[in-house]
């Protein structure tokens, strides 16, 4: 595959997602709703009567659960889930991909609206994590412990 970062390519950049979300909002005149607070509530939830309305399935409804809540619902009551999700139906995996994407897309949009370069910030954080938790000093099998 050639060209890089178009639909169907193997890798998708945060920048492409940022541009797509910006176009999506602009085409619908939804920039007015994409404030930092609204985007945070849309991703995390904690609806408390915010004036954040959006169109969905031809209805106007409140933003309530939040995408992280919707993501959590998929795992709710399942107990520990083995890596690779053995036994999950294909449509369950597709649904999981959709909810993960909603969380990512709102974070990308929130970062953009706040003027944060999410890719650079995340890369810097990975480096900070490595300094905070040196591999040489980490106890085997105990996550987050040095
Ligand atoms: N004001 C809005 C509304 C939606 N979206 C985009 C970002 C998310 O990727 C997706 C969220 O849409 P819904 O709120 O309809 O959530 P779901 O797709 O999860 O639908 P449902 O909650 O019915 O399962 O659409 C957006 O950018 N701005």
TrEMBL record:
Function per UniProt: Hydrolyzes deoxynucleoside triphosphates (dNTPs) to the corresponding nucleoside monophosphates. Has a strong preference for dCTP and its analogs including 5-iodo-dCTP and 5-methyl-dCTP for which it may even have a higher efficiency. May protect DNA or RNA against the incorporation of these genotoxic nucleotide analogs through their catabolism.
Q: How does it assemble?
A: Homotetramer.
Record EC number: 3.6.1.12
Q: Which UniProt keywords apply?
A: Cytoplasm, Hydrolase, Magnesium, Metal-binding
What protein does this entry describe? dCTP pyrophosphatase 1
Cofactor dependence: Mg(2+)
Organism for this UniProt entry: Hibiscus syriacus
Cellular component terms, GO, for this chain's entry? cytosol
GO biological process per UniProt: dCTP catabolic process; DNA protection
Q: What is the lineage of its organism?
A: Eukaryota, Viridiplantae, Streptophyta, Embryophyta, Tracheophyta
Q: Which domain of life is it from?
A: Eukaryota
Please write the reaction equations for the catalytic activity of this protein.
dCTP + H2O = dCMP + diphosphate + H(+)
MF-aspect GO terms: dCTP diphosphatase activity; magnesium ion binding
Q: Where does it reside?
A: Cytoplasm, Cytosol
């Amino acid at each position: 595959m050639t060209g890089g970062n178009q639909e169907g390519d193997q890798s998708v950049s945060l920048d492409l997602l940022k541009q797509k979300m910006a176009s999506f909002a602009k085409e619908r005149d939804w920039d007015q709703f994409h404030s930092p607070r609204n985007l945070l509530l849309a991703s995390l939830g904690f609806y408390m009567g915010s004036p954040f309305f959006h169109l969905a399935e031809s209805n106007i409804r409140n933003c309530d659960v939040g995408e992280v809540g919707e993501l959590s619902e998929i795992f709710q009551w399942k107990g520990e889930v083995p890596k690779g999700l053995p036994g999950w139906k294909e449509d369950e995996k597709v649904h999981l991909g959709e909810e993960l994407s909603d969380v990512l897309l709102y974070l990308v949009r929130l970062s953009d609206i706040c003027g944060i370069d999410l890719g650079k910030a995340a890369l810097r954080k990975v480096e900070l994590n490595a300094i905070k938790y040196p591999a040489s000093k980490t106890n085997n099998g105990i996550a987050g412990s040095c």
